[in-house]
Write a structure and sequence with these properties.
By secondary structure, the protein is α/β, with parallel strands linked by helices. It has ten helices and 13 strands.
């Protein structure tokens, strides 16, 4: 029995108190409407209309059912609306993996935009490397992950790929930090790093990318004397600060340590792809939308970084610009 349909028809009859007019309102014939009300009465075990008079009237049970039916139908509509929003990815929790090196500004932008566009969706963030994320994605412990491209794991889908240019991280006291007289004074060529050690992630973390980094270095005239491995960005920065080598990272990572500087590589030979990946089955309904949102924010971060010359101090988002220099108000005599 379609209880909702029978209750809707009952409410119309209760409002019209006339089967003929109610049938016209509902756009059906009168006999099927009368049969529907009779079936509802049998189902509920009570007469809903007094038919002994010329004009039908609601019985006591019928008057009680009017309010109950309206509340029931309103609750059903709320339930359907909630399920539609959940199916569209607007409600619930999205478990997302993020890499340890993700900049705080990017993380803040992701949370802010998700909260503004889908306030009913909660992001549950987990700080994990790309291999850790891929394992959890395939075992359904994560709904989506911000991972390094390419994603060659079966059963996973990926969103738009954003390429982030990598520069070289150096101690502030390094002679390579000084600007040069060329047209691009802040850029450093790979050949300029000859004689240095290289701090890099372990090969098992991403074999293809690891091999590409070393191939690009050799092709550019930089063959590291020694390789130092670091899984965590903080450990990587610590090794560079201690003079154990240089490293290739995005600028936001280097800014975590004020005693280090970041310089772009001439020709931008190293560009690391990053994208959102999620399980193909079962896919969280919010995963694809989150992938597009994250790609837009990451692409904007890359554009903003390219618009500001290297070595220029960056203000925090929303911060007021530094005040203009003011003239001295006191003149001292020699």
């Amino acid at each position: 029995m379609d209880l909702s349909r029978h209750l809707r028809q009952f409410i119309v009859v209760a409002e019209e108190l006339h089967f003929g007019r109610a049938a016209e309102v509902l756009g059906i014939a009168q006999p099927p409407l009368s049969q529907s009300i009779q079936r509802l009465e049998r189902e509920l075990g009570a007469e809903l209309f007094d038919r002994s008079r010329r004009q039908i009237e609601l019985t006591m049970a019928g008057r009680l059912l009017v309010g109950e039916a309206r509340r029931f139908l309103a609750g059903e509509e709320r339930l359907r609306a909630t399920m539609r929003r959940a199916g569209d990815g607007e409600l619930g929790t999205l478990r997302v993996g993020v890499p340890p090196e993700i900049p705080a500004v990017t993380l803040h932008a992701l949370l802010r935009h998700v909260n503004a566009e889908t306030p009913g969706l909660r992001l549950e963030l987990h700080e994990l490397t790309t291999p850790e994320q891929l394992r959890r994605l395939t075992s359904a412990q994560l709904d989506a992950g911000l991972v390094h491209h390419p994603v060659d794991v079966p059963g996973l889908r990926s969103g738009p790929v954003v390429e982030v240019p990598l520069g070289v991280v150096l101690p502030r006291a390094s002679p390579l930090v000084l600007p040069r007289p060329e047209s691009r004074p802040w850029e450093i060529a790979l050949a300029d790093l000859a004689g240095h050690d290289l701090v890099v992630f372990p090969r098992e973390t991403s074999p293809a990318w690891y091999d590409r980094v070393l191939d690009v270095c050799r092709a550019g005239g930089f063959s590291p004397v020694r390789l130092q491995h670091a899984r965590n960005p903080e450990f990587l920065l610590g090794l560079v600060l201690a003079g154990h080598g240089v490293a290739f990272e995005q600028e936001a990572v280097a800014r975590r340590e004020p005693r280090l500087v970041w310089r772009p590589l001439a020709g931008a030979p190293l560009r690391r792809g990053i994208c959102v990946a999620w399980p193909e089955r079962p896919a969280h309904p919010a995963a694809a939308g989150f992938a597009a949102l994250a790609a837009g924010i990451l692409a904007q971060d890359v554009q903003d970084a390219q618009d500001v010359p290297a070595g220029t101090p960056r203000a925090a988002p929303g911060a007021s610009p530094p005040p203009a220099p003011r003239p001295w108000s006191v003149v001292y005599t020699p």
